[in-house]
Amino acid sequence: MLAYILRRILATIPVMAIVALFVFSLLYIAPGDPAAVIAGDQASPEDVEKIRRSLGLDRPFLVRFGEWSWRLLQGDLGTSMFTGLPVTELIRQRMEPTLSLMVVTLLLTVLIAVPLGVVAAWKAGSWIDRLIMALAVAGFSVPVFVVGYLLVYFLALRLEWLPTQGYTPLKEGLWPWLETLILPSVALGFVYIALIARITRATMLEVLSQDYVRTARAKGLGQGSILFLHALKNAAVPIVTVIGIGIALLIGGAVVTESVFAIPGLGRLTIDAIVRRDYPVIQGIVLMFSFVYVLVNLAIDLIYTVLDPRIRY
Amino acid sequence: MDRRNFLKTAASTGALTAVGGLSAPAIAQGAKVLKFVPQANLANFDPVWGTQYVVRNASQLVWDTLYGLDGKLQPKRQMAESEEVSADGLTWTFKLREGLKWHDGEKVTAKDVVASITRWTHRDAMGQMLKAINKELTAVDDRTLKWVLSKPYPKMLYALGKVGTPCCFIMPERIAKTDPFKQIEEYVGSGPMKFVRGDWKPGALAAFEKNKDYVPRSESADWWSGGRVIHFDRIEWIIMPDPATASAALQSGEIDWWETPLTDLVPVLKRNRNIKVDIADPLGNIGAFRLNHLHPPFNDVKVRRAVQMALNQEDYMRAVAGSDKSLWSTLGSVFTPGTPVFSDAGGEALTGPRDIEGAKKLLAEAGYKGQPVTCLVAQDQPPLKAMGEITADLLKKIGMTVDFVATDWGTVGQRRASKSPPGQGGWGMFHTWHAGADAANPAGHIAARAGGEKGPAWFGWPDDPEVEKGVAAWFDAKTTEEEKAAMAAINRASMTSVTWIPTGFYKSFQAWRSNLSGVSNGPLPWFWGVTKA
Prior knowledge:
The complex is a heterodimer of chains A (313) and B (533).
Chain A: H1 2-29, H2 34-39, H3 45-54, H4 61-73, H5 87-122, H6 127-141, H7 144-158, H8 174-208, H9 211-218, H10 223-260, H11 266-276, H12 279-307
Helix pairs in contact in A: 1-12, 5-6, 5-8, 5-10, 5-12, 6-8, 7-8, 7-10, 8-10, 10-11, 10-12, 11-12
Chain B: H1 3-12, H2 15-19, E1 33-37, H3 53-62, E2 64-65, E3 67-69, E4 75-77, E5 80-85, E6 91-96, H4 110-121, H5 125-132, E7 134-141, E8 144-149, H6 156-161, E9 169-170, H7 173-176, E10 193-195, E11 205-210, E12 234-238, H8 243-252, E13 257-258, H9 266-271, E14 275-279, E15 285-291, H10 301-310, H11 313-321, E16 328-329, H12 348-351, H13 356-365, E17 372-378, H14 382-397, E18 401-407, H15 409-415, E19 429-435, H16 465-476, H17 480-497, E20 501-506, E21 509-513, E22 516-517, E23 531-532
Helix pairs in contact in B: 4-5, 10-13, 11-14, 16-17
């Protein structure tokens, strides 16, 4: 197992190298000019050119890529062209809010979606099943920002239960931290609850028709232990796979959610960097997300072995 | 107690406190904090290197200027105690106020001012004019500096106190010696607030703390002049890219002041009795239709006139600012209406009756054969998107072929600098807007210049010696009457040769909680004099 983990971690190196080359090349050919943004509207074309030179943007592709790669190998993601701050510092500043948002959303999603899917499968064909599936369709159909605005309007503005926006670090207390995350997590989790509830239902339906479930019923086991101890455990592998894929989707969804709720996370950092063409920041974030995604996939592969002892690497 | 506070209190007595406790305020108890949502993200903090308005607006808190404009656009002393100009107008001597200190406790000296002015002259249009006639700029003693020129420059004090970017902010010598094309790394000023570097999260938060050593001028504040008295211990700039979020935060009282509410959201804010809404800047903005004079079809004045005679500013203004006519007006000038030396001489070309048929006839006379007009339209800037759509419709109506390039502002910013033909990466037209404070006269209004490819001229590179003659006359003007005559000459020439086409004049709102008082209007959000109950 340890050898497998090491092999997988080593395998991330070529993956990251390809991602690095791809991102750098894509940004090189993309239109837009950070120098023009920095110089502002009143600047003369000559001033824009001077800023471009001072940023090193007039140098050939290979020179710039070589220099960036060399720094990258030393663990240096570079410096933001706009803020003058190291990319690692910018990412560090934004890591906690995004991580918090993702963790709370994931917990919320799993805690709501899995029981919903199980119940829908158990009551397949009934009005409960139809209601849950109707909610799932609604979850798929309503965009994150619409859910976000509705939640803000009713729960924050009308009822005044929660703040409309912002983020409070965990170090300032659990409730202050949580109260700024509830609305964004619900908004972001809506679509994932729908997705995971449907997958859980489909997988559970298949498992519930297996002989061993019938045997468990014949043995007189309670409905709860049949559903959650026998059936769900065997249905867990595809559900965990979808949850893993969902983490990648969460990263995308966080961009919108962080904007709607003014959460200073990595999603907003990404958008700001793209709008301004802050190349080092975009490259740093994409590399980081790629690395996280590789690690998430590795973690899911390892969870398979826990859920299904037949799987061995 | 509102419901949120009730919930909070209930939670504090419950299990949650056992885990982490309630929020410990990040700042001292009882401190007066102003929460402000600026127009944009403070992505950098060097007002000479990065000339975005948001950088200037934050910089005014941290760095002081030698002079500052008042509400009549007249320069008044700020850091300067006195100034003298020799009879021939070539030697200026400035004396600094006593007791000026940097945030690190050091004294402000004339050497700091010399270094700051020198850096600024590399980046600012008026500064560059001064650089071109500079003979000697030296510190005579700690509080006195002398500037010797080879030619008189009557607009000296205006240049040093103007609000158009980049402004001549005064920094310590060690910082001001930074290459003007590189960003400073230290943020020490002598202004009424100190920048809290440790709290700065670009894209999220910028914070300023009161400079207790600041000695404001004794005169009452008037725009950028007079006593800059700040009544807050801390000012937080909270970046909110989404207008609906800022609107909700203002309604719930989570923020105190929102610099640029979206016009569409203003009715909701006006209905809330806890919120006040007013015009932000009486000098407003001028919408602009920039034409590329280097390539067909707009290298032909007849084609430019055809567009000018058909263009209906009302269409543009309704698309940009809505149907509330108190927010906008038509404008027959390249300058800001309502300013002291404003002129709309020749402006009937834009404000007179519109003539689509006449435009078609003029295009035929010009031999226009359907060459596509490459329109660069930034979709991420609502006013520019709106204007671009009106333009596409207008050009089609008069029989022109439109190549509509829907893109983002970053790409427009790059592509508009290209002098290549439109089919080879260049462009035919793009929209932008000019802040009224910049467009009040030719001083900071590079878009009004028409020096052609060799400059000075802005993107589109119009070439009209008459415009440039008028600009030179304005800079040399010694009286208001002379200035007015020069402005009229510039505007008339601009309208005749259609250097660019103003699409109208519009204003925007600002909104704040009603427990704030002293919020005034102007080209920048002035924080001095604002108090919170």
